[in-house]
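Page 42, continued from yesterday. The earlier attempt failed because a stray header line got pasted into the input along with the sequence. Redoing it now with the clean sequence only.
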Amino acid sequence: MTKTPAITAYDAQPMRDRVVLITGGAQGIGRGIAQAVLGAGGSVMLGDLDADAGRACLREWQAGPRAAFRTLDVARETSVKRWVDAALAQFGHLDGLVNNAGIADPNRGPLHELSLKTWNRYLDTNLTGAFLCSKHALPSLVAAGGAIVNIASTRALQSEPDTEAYAASKGGLVALTHAMAVSAGPAVRVNAILPGWIATDAWKNPQTRRQPKLSRRDHAQHPAGRVGTPEDIGNLAVYLLSTASGFVTGQHFVVDGGMTVKMQYV
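This time it went through. Structure tokens are written below.
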């Protein structure tokens, strides 16, 4: 008689001995992901334009050699290559990449007034940056059997007026995710997280950090009963970066407290 497989114990530290690159990792959602990876036993190389915020992370975490930071402009290929090379020099291998860096301000005014320069700036940072980082990290990720997580947005699926550049960049990131999953598989898995309303005020550079001002109505809009936090995204990112999600690739996961499934009436 064929036996059912035995119960498998969960790994208490699913990221143990794993090294993850995180763009835009010094603040907001990126910092939340970095802290989740560290909490799960992993090591992180942060990349961010804000050097003060990056240094503050290392100072506040006191994680020793498990955390490193280097200034990074994801829209410049030379900067990306130097960043990946620095991570390899320090850690010796790469197991994961989180493409989180992006311009967070979605509203840029009416489409007929949107400049080509602004349009390109959004795509260069939010979309091309993910391509460049994936391109240069991929050989090491293939060698390790690693994973990529792209941080898109629920605005890839729904919109408010005057958000074309942001929405296009995030929608492109979802398409890039499934395209890379097919091209890089089976060696590397690629998935995307689409955050909704995430309160990041307390996760910024210490000079601008503050507690978020949220009303009962803000929380009540969510079927989950609250606005999201960077930890909510970090927890899912750890799962997608770890071997626990070995059969998951090419997918996008909405993390918005249920807002996008709640019917709205005016």
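Notes: Helices lie at 28-39, 51-61, 77-91, 116-144, 164-184, 216-220, 230-241.
Reminder to self: strip header lines before submitting.
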